[in-house]
Each structure stands twice: as structure tokens, then as C-alpha cells.
Amino acid sequence: MSKFKAVRIDKDDAGYRAAFAEFDESELMDGDVTVRVTHSTVNYKDGLAITGKSPVVRKFPMIPGVDFSGVVEASSSDAFKPGDPVILNGWGVGEGHFGGFSQRARLKGDWLVPLPAGLSAGQAMAIGTAGYTAMLCLMALEKHGITPAMGPAVVTGAAGGVGSVAIALLKQAGFHVIASTRRPEEADYLKVMGADEIIDTKDFEGAPRPLMKERWAAGIDSVGSLTLAHLLAATKYNGAIAACGLAQGMDLPTSVAPFILRAVALLGVESVQCPKARRIEAWGRLAREMDKDKLAAMTTHVPFEGVMDVARDIVQGRVRGRVVVDIG
User: Nearest CA to 230 among 238, 244, 216?
Assistant: First the structure.
């Protein structure tokens, strides 16, 4: 099959636009592995890329989609052979290298992770970059020495992709989980995911005091800005917050007080350039530790043709949990 369908983003004198287009395999970018893509997913970054709300895409034309799972069709890499099931996330795919909203992909074998036993290709995309990032956050908290015995864990952006998986993983690890959301109508869903308490994001409006009442020992934050500042001010002595997102903004209006008076740690978590060994560890743990029933409960499937609508919805905050795109 030399022709395939993909989402194409262009930026020229006619403006910025995304539409389905037909490609030839000769147009694929350089790489030593060619993959038949079976599933992808829609992350917030994908929504920004398709809508053009933020300068995510660095090269044009571009096929967006920072995640995909599929089957190797051709390989000159020693690590993979035809027929191998694989996962891709990060490495600038969908930004500077053709991504996963496509029936075909060609890229470096070093960027791929073998699909771990215990996960289907669809389940891997139900987890996706969002869930993989949530696991990296949990691993960072554990490495810092945070345990459930130290106190509750708070999750911001709780009804989103990172938040939904983070709640399930923290609950599985034994934490009392506090879910923070601006969508109170999602309370029942968050409880199914494992939330023990639900708080309104309105609690985090306005500038926080340098130190506030100690409420949690750990946190996973995908929001940033004022929300992260509030989390830090209310973190218990020797606690830690793993930060992985900036949905509210890149600023951080806080003080040194939580760090020097309560020994609070702010742990930065980055998923795009994460070393392969840590990726494999994270995906292996997800295959073993992610509650598959909860994963199914947080997941919606859409056909490839529906990816544009979902991308617009996720930027508007209208997507709950995870969305799997069935590429075909």
C-alpha cells in the first residue's frame, strides 16, 4: 500500500489549517522503522497543534499526533522486525517529525518501545502520553521517598487524561487521593477512578499565602501557574509535588517559603525526551499496575474521521478521561 491517509497541517499565505490528505509512502520522513499505525490518541498538545492555538508545530507540512501504537512493517533496526507490536510517544513526533494521525509512520527505532505484555495496542493508547506521564510523576514521587503513610495525594486537572490515570495509579499505590477539578459534574466519574475526596479548583483562585494549612504530602499537577503555587503552599513538611503541565499558564507566582520552611520539593517531570530505559520501566509498570477496568471506564473510542472534533473539544476542556483514535 503506497498511498495512505493522514491529517495534514499547513501554514502558508492562505493561513494555518488542518485537513485530511492522501500521502505517498515516499513522502514519509527519514527513519529505520516503518509502522502500520493501528491506534492513536488525542492529547492536549494535539489539540493545540490541530487548532493552531499554540505554536506546537515546528515544521510544515506536518502530520500531528504525538502518540501511536501499531505493527512494524519494515525495519533495518536491530531492535525490531516486521510484525513486532510497538508504541511511540514523544521525541518531537507530531511537532517536527510526522506523527500518529496517519495510517503509516516512519521513524527512528530508538524512539519506539515494544508493546509490553498485558497491554493491547488500544489499551496502550488509552494510556498514551497522558498516562505514561502520570506514571513518570508517580515514579518521581517514589524516588523522592514519598509514601502513602506520609499523607494524602492531590491531583489537579483531575478529569483530564493525566489526572484520570494519576488518580487510578495513586489509589492503586495506596494513597488517599484528593481530586481537584473545575467540573463538579464529574464527581461520580472521579470517584470511580479512585478519588476519595473532590475539591473545587475555585479553592486555588487568587494569590496564595506563602504558607497555608498543610493538606497533602504529595501531588501530581498538570495545570501550573496559581494552582501549582497553591499546592506548594499547602504541602506537608517533607512533601513533594510532581509538575508536568501548564494548562493554566507557565508562570509560578510562589515564594521560597514552602521550600526552606517545610522542605517541600518541586519535582519536574518531562516526558518527550525521557531516556528509553525509564520509558520501558514506566510502560512495564503501567501494564502491571494500571487497573484495566478503570482504564476502560475512562476511555472513549472514536474513528479516525472524528479526530478533528476531539482536538477542538480537548482545547475547550470538553473531553473527559482518554480518547482512543481507531486508525484502522
Answer: 216
Residues 6+ apart with CB under 8 A from 293: none
Rounded to an integer, what distance in angstroms lies between the CA atom of residue 40 and that of residue 150? Answer: 37
Distance (Å, whole) CA 282 – CA 19: 34
Dist CA 154 CA 166 (whole Å): 10
Specify the length of the chain in residues: 328
Nearest to 23 by CA among 105, 94, 114, 115: 105
CB-based contact 175:194 (threshold 8 Å): no
Q: pLDDT tens digits, residue range 16-64?
A: 999 999 999 999 999 999 999 999 999 989 999 999 998 899 999 999 9
Cα dihedral 325, 129, 165, 312, rounded to 10, equals -50
For strand 177-181 and strand 197-200, is the pairing parallel, antiparallel, or unpaired? parallel
Q: What is the CA radius of gyration of the chain?
A: 20
Q: CATH 3.90.180.10 region(s) of the chain?
A: 3-115+298-326
Backbone angles phi, psi at 174, to 5 degrees: 105, 5
Per-residue pLDDT tens over the stretch 199-214: 998 889 889 999 999 9
For the domain spanning 130-268, the CATH number is 3.40.50.720
**Under CATH, which number does the domain 3-115+298-326 receive?**
3.90.180.10
Residue 56 · residue 48 · CB < 8 Å: yes
